[in-house]
Design goal:
single chain, five-stranded antiparallel sheet, 6 helices, alpha+beta, Alpha-Beta Plaits, 2 domains, 189 residues
Length: 189
């Protein structure tokens, strides 16, 4: 029978996993303690939680949370879990930035949108645009056709005003020309 503290640890991990928009798995084996604390601070600024976990407890919490058992491949050796907040890609950017400063920091993989990504796909994830950038791109895409329609309508309106101005300035004859009467049809005898 498992110890109560292990049961509580699994319940706590399941709660964090349920609230996280993405999970990142980090290998911190050769990382100095001060560097790891600096990484935690940087991630904390982005409202991201970092937790060193025991692999068996993490595997149990992950599988009970509905994560595929393939996640076991990432839970080898010392593992630190990074729980993303609102923006699932923000921690990847911070981790990539810190990897440039700390050569010993390694990413094992990520779990994002119910898909398991290995370490070789990490740069792809870190290069994804933020939610704000995506919103701006959507607005830009939607704005283009609307702007084109407005400019077309403005051009048509300008042409109409120009034509009406030309008609107004055209000289008028003093007397209107009477219409010629229509010829009468001959009456048959």
């Amino acid at each position: 029978m498992p110890k109560q503290e292990k049961v509580d640890a699994v319940v706590g991990l399941k709660d964090k996993i349920g609230r996280a928009s993405a999970l990142y798995f980090i290998d911190f084996t050769k990382l100095a303690a001060n560097d790891f604390n600096a990484l935690r601070r940087k991630l904390g600024e982005s409202k991201v939680a970092v937790r060193v976990v025991k692999n068996r407890l993490a595997l149990r919490a992950l599988t009970e949370s509905g994560v595929s058992s393939d996640i076991e491949t990432l839970l080898v050796g010392p593992t630190s879990l990074v729980f993303a907040g609102d923006d699932p890609v923000a921690p990847a950017r911070v981790i990539r930035e810190q990897m440039k400063k700390m050569a010993a920091l390694k990413v094992k993989g990520a779990y994002l949108d119910r898909v398991l990504y290995t370490a070789d796909r990490f740069d792809f994830i870190a290069a994804l645009p933020t939610k704000h950038e995506l919103h701006a791109q959507v607005v830009g895409v939607l704005e283009g056709p609307i702007w084109g329609l407005v400019m077309s309508l403005d051009g048509l309106l300008s042409e109409l005003v120009w034509v009406l101005d030309q008609v107004k300035d055209r000289p008028q004859d003093a007397a209107p020309v009477p219409e010629a009467p229509a010829p009468e049809a001959p009456v048959a005898a």
